[in-house]
Amino acid sequence: MIENKPVLIVDDEKNIRLTLSMVLESMGLESDEAMNGEEALAKLEKKDFGVVLLDLKMPGMDGMEVLRRMQELHPDIRTIIITAHGTIDSAVEAMKLGAVDFIQKPFAPDEIRELVSKVIDREKLDEKKVKDYASFIELAKRCMQERRLNASIEHINRAIALDPTRPEAFNFLGAIMEIRGDWLDAQKQYRIALSLDPAYEPARKNLYRTTSFYKTGRITLDEDNKDKQ
Residues 151, 125: contact at Cβ < 8 Å? Predict the structure, then answer.
């Protein structure tokens, strides 16, 4: 079970590693630390981790390369991406490799607790018993982590069938279309989400980013995820 395995913190900033380890300890979770990509891969070879908190921007081997190698060697490990800066190319590439959970520096301890708990709880969902909108969205994220995009779309469509008036599922569909390289369909889904709720920030940010010239930022799936790009 993922909650019984330690969490690996990969970040070149000592203060960030210390903060994260203290938060995880308060949750009753064991943690280990790596200050760069090379050290992270060495630790992944020696110990069985359930979750990795991974900084994308590090000197030497960056987080994207660590993520690629993790998916080749340890595809069952769940990854939470830590980022302060990013481009659409790196965001889409990270999601192609199964990263659907992002947290942006600076972050509060409660944000880390909530996100790590969500990732752990997602693994406990029984596909045969899920009946509510939010759980179908979480199942869709789990399938994306496993790079099963068609299964992810099926769960999103089930969420839409339960409640076609909510924007979250359409925004999620837009993200999957981006991963597949279908920018026009992605923008269509973001516009549908905004038509349902003009104040829904993730879809607004995604649409703005995908229609801007520089396309900076990252894909946003959740309203509580900060995006200061």
Answer: no
